[in-house]
Write a structure and sequence with these properties.
With 400 residues, this protein is of the alpha/beta class. The protein has helices at 3-35, 53-56, 62-72, 111-115, 151-154, 164-173, 193-204, 226-233, 237-245, 249-259, 285-301, 315-328, 335-347, 353-363, 365-370, 385-399, and strands at residues 41-44, 47-52, 87-90, 94-97, 102-106, 119-123, 142-149, 180-185, 211-215, 223-225, 279-281, 305-310, 331-334. The chain has a domain at 38-120 and 225-277.
Length: 400
């Protein structure tokens, strides 16, 4: 066989085994994209509440489980879950906001505002976080603060510029002390210290922060199946392939169709003892300490000051944080204590009387007297606009 005939056969074989299949796949991909079909949300006749692909992933379902339970039990309307569509699966951190998304969704953490149909803006930067896009190279004279946390740091229920991270930056810049203060908010609803550790490594440290304020614990203690925890913490080549493939609309559509065959809400039903899987914390207390210690060490290695902030953190995780802070020499602020301590001053009209009047009208004076925590939070956990202002003022006073 001469070289020309060999090359002709090889070319034909290549055409049949590679070029034609790729052309067919490209055609399918193009058709899916042009059709405009939603490849990110699952819905079928078996369950009427739309479920984003990232939530249907067993490793992520715990982060939305409480909300879906409320919807299934008719405690909140199905529209309360629309904010979940602002997020997507992502490598390293499992999920984050959809880069560049800009949408207004109903405020689900404040039931009164939910009833009134009030909405908040969900806007993400190019990395998928509710924060401004900043260059990696830090300009001279700039002081950067990274905020790590869950929905309390994310600022769920308030506009982005009303969060304590942005309020703190505004207060510091108003000093005109010769430095420009920038904040990078990496908080995402449902995040645990495990997620925070990954986010800090990938999206915090490379931006050369001078300070990192981390707030975790609210989700670390949530109970999930051992299988879900193993999936959450698994890092393998297969995971990398999955995140590569999800770039293609055809793959997302195929996955959506397959996942629509199962009902994700069956996980909410009470299982008989024989079928119950053993449930464990998403992050145990020991793992929690390990994650915080690792983040502090990584920060100090880069000359970055670390601070612990407790917000909506259960006692069995808050106490270890306090002890760890003392052992590591890290400043620790109990944010919920700070918020409650501010209520008398707020009621006396010494802190933002206009906002206080708004919440008095929203809840009624009697309700605020019975549950004074609602003066500074939307649901006894997430800071409201008043709460964020209080936290920003205290952070400035005690850290700067």
């Amino acid at each position: 066989m001469n070289i020309s005939s060999w090359w002709k056969k090889f070319r034909n074989l290549l055409l049949l085994t590679l070029v034609i299949p790729l052309a067919v796949l490209a055609l399918i991909e193009g058709l899916v994209r042009v059709s405009g079909v939603n490849t990110e949300v699952i819905k079928s006749d078996r369950f009427q509440v739309a479920t984003p692909l990232w939530v249907a992933d067993e490793a992520n379902f715990f982060s939305a489980e409480a909300l879906y339970r409320d919807i299934v039990h008719h405690e909140v309307p199905a529209v309360a879950a629309e904010w979940l569509t602002c997020f997507e699966e992502a490598p390293h951190v499992r999920y984050r906001m959809r880069p560049g998304i800009d949408r207004r969704v109903v405020n689900t953490v404040n039931r009164r505002e939910l009833e009134q149909g009030m909405k908040v803006r969900m806007r993400a930067n190019s990395l998928g976080f509710r924060s401004a896009d900043l260059p990696r190279a830090k300009p001279a004279g700039t002081y950067r603060i990274v905020f790590l946390g869950d929905s309390t740091t994310f600022g769920w229920g308030v506009e982005a510029d009303e969060r304590f991270s942005e309020r703190l930056a505004a207060r510091l810049n108003a000093r005109n002390d010769g430095r420009n203060y920038e904040v990078i908010n990496l908080g995402i609803p449902g995040y645990t210290s495990w997620h925070g550790r990954k986010a800090f490594e990938r999206f915090g440290l490379p931006w050369s922060p001078d300070m990192v304020i981390m707030s975790f614990g609210a989700n670390d203690g949530k109970m999930i199946s051992q299988r879900a925890k193993a999936l959450l913490q698994r890092e393998s080549a297969l995971e990398g392939v999955k995140y590569f493939l999800r770039r293609f609309a055809a793959y997302r559509l195929m996955r959506r169709l397959l996942l629509s065959l199962t009902n994700p809400f069956e996980k909410l039903a009470e299982q008989p003892p024989a079928k119950k899987q053993k449930r464990v914390p998403v992050v145990t207390v020991a793992e929690f300490r390990e994650n915080l210690t690792a983040m502090v060490a990584a920060a100090r290695k880069k000359g970055c000051r670390a601070v612990f902030l407790g917000l909506c953190c259960p006692a069995d995780y808050l106490a270890p944080v306090s002890a760890l802070a003392e052992r590591l020499g890290v400043r620790h602020l109990d944010g919920m204590h700070v918020l409650l301590q501010s209520v008398p001053q707020i009621k006396a009209g010494k802190i933002n009387p206009e906002l206080y009047q708004y919440y008095r009208e929203l809840y009624g004076r009697e309700a605020l007297e019975k549950r004074r925590i609602l003066t500074v939070t939307s649901d006894s956990c997430h800071p409201n606009r008043l709460g964020h202002r209080v936290l920003a003022a205290v952070l400035e006073e005690r850290l700067f």
